[in-house]
Each structure stands twice: as structure tokens, then as C-alpha cells.
Design goal:
Layout: E1 18-23, H1 26-38, E2 46-62, H2 65-90, H3 96-121, E3 127-142, H4 147-155
Antiparallel strand pairs: 1-3, 2-3
Helix pairs in contact: 2-3
Keywords: Membrane, Transmembrane, Transmembrane helix
Pfam family, one: YflT
Organism: Glaciihabitans arcticus
Length: about 160
């Protein structure tokens, strides 16, 4: 028994059950679950499992001092804008120029931080990229007690939308 009255955390595990179908894309598997959900099937008994995961890094461009400065300025401006809005909301004399000043100061510090960070990592990584985790296929796994009902629902033709 837990002395703090909280439930013990559930350990992560793979869902067990029947494979209702295997799909090439997550969107296809998601559409099947959505269709079953609209048919009033107990969707808490479903899971989408991605198999054979791969990390894909797509190079989006060359990183330069200019791009590092611009990126830093943009993120700094957002942080400054947030702080400025907080000051605007909780100050005695609300002045909108306070928000603009905070955004400009944030952009300046962000730009400096972006340039310094790029200078320190130069020659190790001179490009920008995005990361994705993709699966080779996606399986919809269902509680064995609901397999027949789900297969019957999926065998029906989908209603035509007007």
C-alpha cells in the first residue's frame, strides 16, 4: 500500500490482443480507429502500434551566422513578448510600450545567444534539420472479446457523406 494514497505508476508495456489490421501509414490506422469510434465500439480497448521504428533526419538547409541570429532573435522575441504581457497584466500602470520593449530586448538577447551558440558548435554541425520517428507499418490491436464486432463493423460499407 502506498502511504501517500496515490496509485503506483503503471509500467509501460505493449498492448496485447488480436491484430485487427496492418497499415502502411499512421493516418490509415487512425482512420480505422475513428471509423470504429463513430460506430460506438469501445475504443478504449484499441491501440495503434508502430513497428520497426526508424529515426529520419531531413536536412533543411545550411546553418550560417545570419540564420543562427535570426532564429535566436525569433525565439527571444517570443520569450520577451511573454514576459512583457505578464508585466502588462500585473503592473500598476499598464503600458503597451512595455510589451514591445520586452519583445525587443528578448529578441536582442536571443540573437546574441543564437550567435554565441552557433560559434561554439561551428564545424560540428553546419546545417539545420528536422527529426521524425517513423514506423514501417502500423497495427491496430484490439481486445480479443471485441474482434468479431470490430471486423463486422469494418466490413460494412462506409456511409457516403453529402
Amino acid at each position: 500500500m502506498n502511504p501517500f494514497g496515490r496509485k503506483a505508476p503503471v509500467q509501460p508495456s505493449l498492448p496485447k490482443g488480436d491484430v485487427l489490421g496492418t497499415y502502411d501509414t499512421y493516418l490509415e490506422a487512425q482512420k480505422v480507429v475513428d471509423r470504429l469510434s463513430k460506430s460506438d465500439l469501445e475504443v478504449k480497448q484499441l491501440a495503434i502500434v508502430g513497428n520497426d521504428l526508424k529515426t529520419v533526419e531531413r536536412v533543411t538547409g545550411k546553418l550560417t551566422y545570419g540564420r543562427a541570429a535570426l532564429s535566436g532573435a525569433a525565439s527571444g522575441a517570443w520569450l520577451g513578448l511573454f514576459i512583457g504581457l505578464l508585466l502588462f497584466l500585473f503592473s500598476q500602470a499598464p503600458v503597451l510600450t512595455l510589451v514591445a520593449a520586452a519583445a525587443l530586448i528578448g529578441a536582442g538577447f536571443g540573437m546574441l545567444f543564437g550567435i554565441v551558440t552557433y560559434s561554439l558548435s561551428r564545424r560540428r554541425r553546419d546545417f539545420t534539420s528536422t527529426h521524425q520517428v517513423l514506423a514501417s507499418n502500423y497495427q491496430v490491436v484490439i481486445d480479443p472479446a471485441l474482434t468479431a464486432q470490430a471486423q463486422e463493423l469494418l466490413a460494412r460499407p462506409e456511409p457516403v457523406k453529402e
